[in-house]
């Protein structure tokens, strides 16, 4: 009985954090996350369950990282919000910019990935991960009214649009240059081929005279 209880306690201790719509924001805030979206009817999900729970146990006390899981049989809206195709799906990174993990799903591969990629994120909730420059900027921005912060975000979004517009303009200019060069090349080759035909005709006439 004692052996059974010990084994049961081990399983409970290593189970990854269950995330849902109610605890998602609070659990992921300021942390670099690695989340498994799964279904209890999915055989591949069951195959990697042990490795995922072991991974969670390794990083359990790291406050900058979160190894979590979402049961898509129950949390359908949360799973749909992330717009992935197929399960199990593993997403990682910043909660506001998650990327899909495409590597192997054994413990060693998962743990190596978590060690290298789940780096602490700089934010007001994780100031220790910030550089001196970012700490200073966060202090300045935290003192601003909300409207000013929103204006800053909109200004940054406009910078992105400006960068895209400049790129599109330069690409259009390059396309025009390419088209002109391609046309010039085609005309030059056509002229050379005409010259070759003329030279070949002269060659044939010279052969006739020689014969």
Explain what this protein looks like in three dimensions:
With 211 residues, the protein is an alpha/beta fold. It contains eight helices and five strands; from the N terminus they run αβαβααβαββααα. Strands 1-3-2-4-5 form a five-stranded mixed sheet. A hairpin with a 2-residue loop joins β4 (89-94) and β5. The longest helix has 65 residues, at 146-210. The relative contact order is 0.09. The model is unreliable at 1-13 (pLDDT under 50).
Helix-strand blueprint:
Blueprint: H1 2-14, E1 17-18, H2 24-28, E2 32-38, H3 43-47, H4 49-58, E3 65-71, H5 76-81, E4 89-94, E5 97-100, H6 107-117, H7 132-142, H8 146-210
Parallel strand pairs: 1-3, 2-3
Antiparallel strand pairs: 2-4, 4-5
Helix pairs in contact: 4-6
Descriptive labels:
five-stranded mixed beta sheet, 8 helices, elongated, 211 residues, alpha/beta, 12% strand
Give the SSE order as H and E letters: HEHEHHEHEEHHH
Name the structural class. alpha/beta
Distance between the terminal alpha carbons, to the nearest Å? 112 Å
Instruction: Report the helical percentage.
Output: 55-70%
What is the compact description of this entry?
The protein has 211 residues and is an alpha/beta fold. It has helices spanning 2-14, 24-28, 43-47, 49-58, 76-81, 107-117, 132-142, 146-210, and strands at 17-18, 32-38, 65-71, 89-94, 97-100. Helices cover 60% and strands 12% of the residues.
